[in-house]
Amino acid sequence: MMTLQTTPDRPRIDAREKVLGRALYAADIALDGLLHAITVPATIAKGRVTAIDTALAIAEPGVVRVYTHEDFADDIAVTPATLGGNQPGLQPMTDTMIRFRGQPVALVVAETLEAACEAARLVRVSYRVEPFTATMDELGSEAEPYEITAEVGDAHAALQAAEVTVDAVYAQAQNHHNPLELISTTAYWGAGKLTILEGTQNTSAIKFGTAGALGFAPSTVDAISPYVGGAFGQKTVLQLQSALVSRAAVLLGRPVKLVMPRAQLFHTAAYRPRSNHRIQLGASRDGRLVATIYESDQQNARYDHFYGTSHNEMVSHLYGIANWLGRERLIRVDTSPPGYMRAPHEHPASFAFESAIDELAYLLEMDPVVLRLVNDTDRDPITGKPYSSRTLARCLERGAELFGWNRRNPAPRTMTAEDGTLIGWGVAAGAYKGSMCPAIARLRIQANGVTRLFITGHEMGQGMRSAIAAELMEVLPVNLDKLDIQMGDTRAAAQHLTAGSWGTGSAVPATRAVAEKMKAALTELVGELREGDDVHRKLMSTKRPMLEVEIEQLGLDQTQAALDRMRQGAPATAGPIYDELVAFSWIAHFVEVRVDPTTMRVRVPRVVSVADCGRVMNRRTATSQVQGGVVWGIGAALQEAAEVDPRYGFIQNNDLADYVVPVNADIGDITVELLDIPDLQLNASGVKGVGEVAMVGASAAVANAVFHATGKRIRHLPIRIEDLL
Fold first, then answer.
1. pLDDT score at 7
2. Pair 411, 699: CB distance under 8 Å
3. N or C: which end of the chain has fewer CB within 10 A?
């Protein structure tokens, strides 16, 4: 990998314990007297429960209790605290209403998992079925009014006057996250405290949401997320099971654990919803983009609070287009609630918009890279503000160089291998907002060589601990072998939602600030620190067992109010638009596809991705993030789609046998280059996010390459073999 780096390359600090199996995830933590729980899912899409017979289930050996809405109706509620924790507007088992197939209607608690599962199959539920609508294409779907989400200039007039136009509709299928670690909740009650262990990106949602749902004071609830085995947005919320398991643990006085089976997660956990995108582009004959009208429809649940009107947020800032109109709406149906999934709106928006840009390039008979470069800009077209950094052109130029783009024959179906295989080359660009959150960091250095950092944030496989360690070592040479970073724990520090690629950009500057404060405190005690000094021995010389400092860090342009919101479990992000600037990470993807001329099977043997994520804190983890995003983009482009049966409202391919995701055999060479240019206007560490920008534009580049190979423009994802026959 050809990363230009300013930060030393260091190994991932948690690699050894993960490889050796010593890293503990929430469901791994052993507790005395642990009970096991499983939910009983509804088998109808809409209606009411008329009766529940639990007699056979209760009689099953090992079963402790079977809970239904009759037990929880008065004990669990949806509250403002719950919604503040980013919870959809539903708490199951509080009434008889069924709002989607798979909704929990009973909770079985037993001494063993086997007993719980067997008893769950014995619960008999009767329903009164009501008419329902499972997809947004059906009669009965409810379209909300359009909301204008981006507007500058007069897009209609500019489009009408444009010399060349594109008008096309693009469709995004429903996708599911499928992280390796299933969603689990373990809860126990003792000494007046409820403790919840859950793999989550948002322990504040768990703490405050569960407290609100159960009527507890937040001070009596702790939430801990030690490690997360993949999340990608699915674990940003208080899960539907969290309050159920917690209430059962309180009532029974024993720890209770529920690990939701994958088949049920397809129906109960968040996912990327279906969406349609109409893109109208106008340009002059020399390739200057003069107008865009972008309208999107996104499927949503009837009662859901998932924010669905952000498709314009990224693409409206991508090029210098002076006239832009963005209109978006939700279409409500009777399904489980969707939610955030890696590059939640940016991924489908980039597929639609960057496909339309590609179509325009062919109409103009213009190189797609040149068209994008012609429309580069120094100032944000929507706000008129400067960017904190603007390196998209550099990403495109460097990517083209690495890929060998100058060898491309521009005409579709003209590049072939010796065996007749069709070869296609495609390009797409992307961006992701540079956001920040408040953070709290408490650093403790001990004379015995141990260093403990208690900090805001969640480690979910993105390498946040390694980035924090790298920044700490830049300021203070502590003993890395005895460094303990505690995060994702509401006991250690107030926690924010770690998502939207703002985790590292918030925690790393806080780490630098607390390390500098500790260095100043040590200097005051022992004098000026010199290179090679052992800070622990220096502290020992003062006969102090430890020294501790704490800081509170605000994001750019944030006030104390943001920190107060975070302490209360509410979202507290800033960006990408700040008082004086606009901040984004940038990326360019170049993709080669090979299409079998007989079967039309599409392979992706080669990808080059060049990204600017500010300062690169850990080259290994950042490179891995981009590679993972590209793989996901390939999967979204060619494989992944949930198949919803409109007759019964359930997902037919609700397992990894039928919901197809990329495997090693599907992936070729992925070359990643990171520009590694600190963005010091955004924060003192110069870091921006990389986890989500990695995926933005990857699917579009695949689709554009497929067109170049076959001459067929496919405007929906995924692209199936039958689309190319």
1. 66
2. no
3. C
